[in-house]
Input
Amino acid sequence: MAEAHKRIEACHMRLMADPENADLHMERAQALREFGNLASNRIAYEQAVHSYTRTIELKPEDPEPRLGRGKDRLHLGQVDAALADFEEAVRLDPGLRNAHVWRGIALNSLGRHAEALDAFDAALEIAGESAELHYNRGRALAKLGRHGEAADSLRRATELDPEGLFNWYMLAAVLHGLDRYGEALDAAERALSLAPNNAGILFLVGDTLNRLGRHDEALGHIDESLRHDPDNLDALTTKGLVLFMLGRHAESLSLSDSLVSEHPDSAKLRLCRAWPLQSLGRHDEALS
Output
């Protein structure tokens, strides 16, 4: 972080002597983004946007500052403005692979998944495959309901980058949605090996184990997930179901009672509460 700050200061001093130097504005913008990434600093991203804008004014036909400004606008949540930058970068240089990739990322964020898929495919045609591209393609395909194709693309991402946490996690989630629980468990456990304290991955492993009928193991993973994220409603609901499947009906009912009292309008929670009530012989309450 200190090194990025030194670069920012050095660029500032040089720009005082040469304020029309587009390359210096670009260098300052890149240093500001690096600082923003390291410090999660919104002001640094805003200043980077300003520096990129100045670079664009001085070099309007260069797509790179458009691409850089778009990335920082994404960090700031300015997705429409970021997309406009990426599309202009593509117009200026249709062969710029990263412009297509980031255009696809912005389109995915806006829910325009078919267009995002086209952008990722354009990047594939330009520069060949990469783990990043297959991951983003997989996300777009999943959003389009093309889950089998999504799984294939995400599987390829894991082959290209076996240490990519999100590749494995997203693959596991898609396979889970396809009811391919054995494969989903393998992928989820690989993700867990890369991030053993991640609450979301622990829950996914636990839920998948539950679907495979391995309820004791499922409960251990769900409890560990809740230790890291105690308010996760999905994990709490699934824990109640696992307790029921283990025959621990009183515990399941106690948890369900607590959840229903907090979320009285949830039909799913009321159904989960009805199961232990039925098993405990409290049929009238189960039907109410």
